[in-house]
Design brief:
single chain, 8-stranded mixed β-sheet, 7-stranded antiparallel β-sheet, 22 helices
Length: 733
């Protein structure tokens, strides 16, 4: 029996939590309908072949590494005897499993006619053979494995998943090989490795696309998932795939018909059976307690000199990591006391932002930025309303299996093959759009070999309510006005520009007497004004809410005008989709019904979330080009009712001040470049070849007048905030 049978693992019994309707964003329909296109796009840009990636599964200690290789070689040699003509010395269970995969290993299975189910049967038998053999291993230097890996029933929708995806091969961690006899459909929370089988060797690209789809399930439902392993089985060729936050690394082909290929794959499975939980892709500092039905989350105490941590307790996260790539941000409402877990006073943000490899440089450290903002505002006697306070946090550290605590980062995942990975990425030519939704590492360009991320966790107060928990447009206006007032104060007093306004980064607070306030959160992309990243900008933000200049990667300085443009998009998004989670689900159902009746039904703002950065920018420019078009394409689709009518008027006012400000000349208007005539035009200028018509970018011109524009925008927000407060009080009375 393996060691796993007597020791609880950090994730045993609860890898993740189901996604409730409140966790579903309003673009989930588009995510599902475009999943294949998205997967294809991501595969082309992010898939990197790195033959040695399987070494990341090896235990960290050299003694264990040597033992794993010896055990794998012995298992493979005995299997070769069983497949060949020589009798193998093995017990009945292992012999039975070997017999079931013999025709696959000798290649005769593929001559029987296409039936991928047969490949899964044989692949499952191979995993069972390895599991039975591991339980018989007599290497005292390494002891018993931590787990065995077995295939659950293939081609099933994982239990507990709200998605329609059927995972062809869910490999789960078990205590003993005999568990294979009772395995049914896997719980999505119990999946350790995803796999996909195809009949032909040439179909490995289709298998990659399927794995990309499955990987999103792991991140969305397993709240302590750091990275993920996958396996493709195409004919008799097996490949191992490692999913990181920016790239998918695929191993060399391992043909199980050949001894060397079979041995390499068996070594990979044996390594994962003995390795630490962190090497399986799990975060050992977030653990699930099935008895109390809560998560225990370790958080660094930045006031401690010896690297101490504090423990928080939380129910399932209110923010889940739904994307295949990126920061994989998760959010928990938590408490230091497990008895008050249902009345939490702290919000824990867990994310993987880009960072400088020189960790002493804290310019991109969200924790340090939040602390600097608080210190500066308090020192200057300014209000901290609308701002968050950091109480604990720092870089997540874990035991990598050597007894030494290490910083969790990109390097911690791929450290054994760091040089090989860098070489493989450098060989890629399609690098131009590899950044999905955020900035590159400090001081690094898009061509940097490895985009370095660090795993950070921050505990902040107060705990805000997500916008989808409100159903009043009046409350929304108050919240947004407070957030933008805080945004302006932080910029003017502290010199920090937020750069990532979205529906997830602005929250609401409700006091006991029902008073509503706004809260500005998430400073991952915040930078100090004047830094190179504002003068030579990088793409940051969430696709539907990114400014046009941001989407285009324009070499124009990023200013507060970009954030105000994002605010306009937030208002339009919620005005059409609805504010509350219930309204958004109704909208999704209505859109689905309309699209079913008319496949060409024009969904408002659909183009704001689908396509490349440039395509989304083109759609936004078309929607904002003229006031009449903005009315027709956007404002006319707002929900109706007094509150939404006020929200529409606010959107109209912000649009006018941003893009068609009548207090400024026409050269500052619009979203398209203008041709202007230089004045005066003289004969001498013509003779000298001086250009008499000049191209002007209105986004660039507006920066000259940003103070005037922002003043008008703040006045508009304050005006509608006062009206909203009156209406909100009237509704409450």
């Amino acid at each position: 029996m393996s060691k796993a049978s007597s020791e609880a693992t950090p994730f045993k019994g609860r890898l993740g939590a189901r996604i409730s309707p409140s966790n579903i964003t309003s673009n989930s329909i588009s995510q599902k309908t475009t999943r294949y296109d998205d997967a294809e796009l991501q595969r082309r840009e992010r898939l990197v072949e790195c033959a040695s990636i399987v070494r990341c599964a090896l235990p960290k200690k050299p003694l264990k590494q040597a033992a794993v290789k010896a055990i794998a070689a012995d298992i493979s040699a005995k299997l070769a005897q069983a497949v060949g003509s020589k009798p193998a010395d093995m017990p009945g269970d292992a012999a039975a499993a070997a017999a079931k995969c013999r025709s696959w290993l000798d290649g005769s299975l593929l001559a029987e006619g296409r039936d991928e189910a047969k490949i899964y049967t044989a692949f499952s038998a191979l995993l069972r053979y390895i599991a039975h053999s591991l339980e018989l291993s007599s290497d005292s230097s390494i002891g018993l494995p931590n787990r065995v890996l077995l295939l659950a029933q293939a081609d099933r929708k994982p239990k507990g998943s709200d998605e329609s995806i059927r995972v062809d091969g869910s490999i789960i961690s078990c205590s003993r090989a005999a568990d294979a006899e009772s395995l049914g459909s896997a719980e999505v929370q119990d999946i350790a490795i995803i796999s996909e089988a195809k009949w032909l060797q040439s179909e490995h690209e289709q298998a990659y696309r399927q794995l990309i789809r499955y990987s999103r399930l792991l991140y969305a439902y397993q709240h302590n998932r750091r990275f993920a392993w996958g396996i493709t089985v195409c004919g008799t060729v097996v490949r191992v795939v490692l999913f990181t936050h920016d790239f998918i690394f695929a191993s060399a082909s391992m043909d199980v018909r050949r001894l060397e290929g079979r041995t390499e794959f068996i070594q990979f499975i044996v390594a994962l059976s003995y390795c630490d939980e962190s090497q399986l892709g799990f975060d050992t500092t977030i653990t699930w307690c099935p008895t109390a039905q809560l998560w225990t989350i370790e958080c660094s105490d930045f006031n401690s000199e010896n690297g101490a941590t504090v423990k928080y307790y939380a129910r399932d996260p209110v923010l889940v990591a739904e994307r295949k790539f990126g920061r994989h941000t998760r959010g928990f409402k938590a408490s230091l006391d497990p008895s008050t877990v249902d009345t939490p006073d702290t919000f824990i943000k867990d994310a993987w932002p880009y960072a400088s490899q020189e960790l002493a440089d804290t310019s991109r450290d969200e924790l340090q930025i939040i602390r600097n903002i608080q210190d500066t505002l308090q020192a200057r006697g300014e209000s901290t309303a609308g701002c968050v306070t950091a109480v604990h946090g720092g870089i997540v550290k874990f035991d990598a299996g050597t007894g030494e605590m290490v910083n969790d980062s990109t390097n911690a995942i791929i450290d054994p093959v760091l040089r090989e990975v860098a070489t493989a990425i450098s060989a890629k030519t399609a690098m131009s759009e590899a950044n999905e939704d955020e900035a590159y590492g400090d001081g690094e360009s898009k061509e940097a070999d490895i985009r370095f991320r660090v795993h950070r966790r921050i505990a902040i107060q107060p705990v805000g309510r997500p916008l989808y928990t409100f159903d009043s447009p009046y409350a929304l206006i108050i919240i947004l006005a407070d957030a933008m007032e805080a945004h302006t104060r932080i910029l003017k007093t502290c010199g920090y520009l937020h750069r990532d306004l979205s529906i997830n980064n602005i929250m609401g607070l409700v006091s006991q007497d029902g008073h509503v306030q706004g809260l500005l959160t998430d400073y991952d992309c915040t930078i100090k004004v004047g830094e190179a990243r504002t003068l030579w900008p990088e793409r940051t933000g969430t696709l539907p809410f990114m400014s046009i200049s941001n989407l285009l990667g324009s070499p124009i300085e990023r200013t507060e005008l970009d954030d105000w443009e994002s605010l306009l998009y937030i208002i339009c998004w919620l005005g059409i989709h609805g504010i509350s989670g219930v309204e958004q689900l109704r909208y999704q159902a209505e859109v689905k019904r309309m699209r079913k009746a008319d496949p060409f039904y024009d969904i408002p703002m659909e183009g704001w979330e689908i396509g490349t950065f440039e395509q989304v920018a083109t759609v936004k420019k078309a929607n904002l080009e003229e006031s009449e078009i903005f009315e027709e394409k956007i404002l006319n689709h707002f929900k109706t009712g007094d509150g939404y009518d006020m929200l529409k008027k606010l959107a109209r006012a912000l649009y006018q001040f941003l893009f068609n400000n009548l207090y400024l000349p026409s050269v500052y208007h619009g979203v398209n470049k203008l041709q202007i005539t230089e004045e005066p035009i003289t004969k001498e200028q013509i003779l000298m070849g001086v250009a008499i018509r000049t191209t002007v970018n209105p986004f660039e011109k507006r920066i000259e007048k940003k103070d005037i524009i922002v003043e008008s925008l703040l006045e508009a927000m304050d005006f509608y905030k006062q009206k909203a407060e009156q209406a909100y009080k009237a509704d409450a009375s």
